[in-house]
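Hypothesis: this fold can be encoded by more than one sequence.
Test: take the structure tokens below, design a sequence, compare later.
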């Protein structure tokens, strides 16, 4: 499913956790620079965050200590501030989520490897203040009913992203 929502990638930092935790209480975040650290910091307000890399090293880990019970694994394929970029899509046993703000529309990738991809539009796609979210249908069943409609991915999908037109 493709959603067009208000706000940039920063608005998705809490919404990813709020929408996609399901019954889980923990997530894995690979922190390789500024944007992934920001995403992890915000997610930590909503769940237990397992940081998979030392944020002070700003390097890509070879062996991750993945939590098999995590709701998802989150990463940022291109850390523009720190100059870190993944050459390959990571392999995980949990749903893979990516902040592709600086690479969506620039590189080809296999969308089937992801459960959710989001990108703020102002870098490569369009005007600031909008975000595009690609989310697998099965992940929408995790969205809680008590989340405000404007922030609920499942509801936004039902109304074709037109609850409040971005």
């Amino acid at each position: 499913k493709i959603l067009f929502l208000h706000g940039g990638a920063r608005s998705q930092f809490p919404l990813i956790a709020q929408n996609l935790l399901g019954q889980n209480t923990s997530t894995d975040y690979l922190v390789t620079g500024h944007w992934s650290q920001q995403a992890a910091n915000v997610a930590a307000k909503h769940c237990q965050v397992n940081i998979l890399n030392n944020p002070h090293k700003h390097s890509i880990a070879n062996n991750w200590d993945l939590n098999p019970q995590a709701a998802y694994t989150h990463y940022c394929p291109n850390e523009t501030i720190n100059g870190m970029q993944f050459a390959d899509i990571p392999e995980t046993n949990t749903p893979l989520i990516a902040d592709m703000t600086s690479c969506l529309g620039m590189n080809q990738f296999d969308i089937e490897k992801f459960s959710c991809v989001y990108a703020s539009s102002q870098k490569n796609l369009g005007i600031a203040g909008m975000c595009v979210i690609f989310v697998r249908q099965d992940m929408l069943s995790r969205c809680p009913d008590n989340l405000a409609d404007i922030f609920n991915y499942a509801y936004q999908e039902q109304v074709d992203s037109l609850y409040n037109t971005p």
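The mean pLDDT is 87. The CA atoms of residues 14 and 58 lie 23 Å apart.
Hypothesis status: open.
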